[in-house]
Specification:
136 residues; 4 helices; 0% strand
Length: 136
């Protein structure tokens, strides 16, 4: 079935809206990076939480870069962001976290790491046949 004029117009419109949202996300991330660096500069100290926050921003920027460069978004990037976010929460709130919550957070990080391994194994073992950008 060939797409009609309306569906092509809708597809182009949604693509433009998506690109606009990606630009907004990139600008917001750059602004947040500047705020974090300013906070570090004013505090005259760098904490582990600050570094993990900067890594979060770095992952978001690399996810945007990959998506804009290739047009597809691997599932791994949001999973990496999730691991870093959970690790940051664990590091920052270590004093107030009870043992059960700490175990649950650690288990969540482990499960996300296992999901990344499964996804990577699936991409290597069962590569897409219709995706020309994927290589072995």
């Amino acid at each position: 079935m060939t797409p009609n004029k309306f569906s092509r117009l809708t597809q182009v419109s949604l693509g433009m809206v998506g690109q606009g949202v990606l630009i907004v996300i990139a600008i917001a991330t750059i602004f947040a990076i500047c705020q974090a660096i300013n906070h570090i500069w004013l505090a005259r100290a760098i904490s582990v939480g600050d570094l993990l926050l900067l890594f979060l921003y770095l992952e978001v920027m690399s996810m945007l870069d990959h998506y804009l460069g290739s047009g597809n978004l691997p599932v791994r990037y949001p999973l990496y962001i999730g691991i870093i976010a959970l690790a940051r929460y664990l590091v920052l709130d270590i004093a107030e976290i009870d043992a059960f919550r700490m175990f649950a957070l650690s288990g969540s990080i482990f499960l996300i790491a296992m999901a990344i391994l499964v996804v990577r194994y699936g991409h290597v073992r069962f590569p897409y046949t219709d995706c020309p950008t994927q290589s072995k």
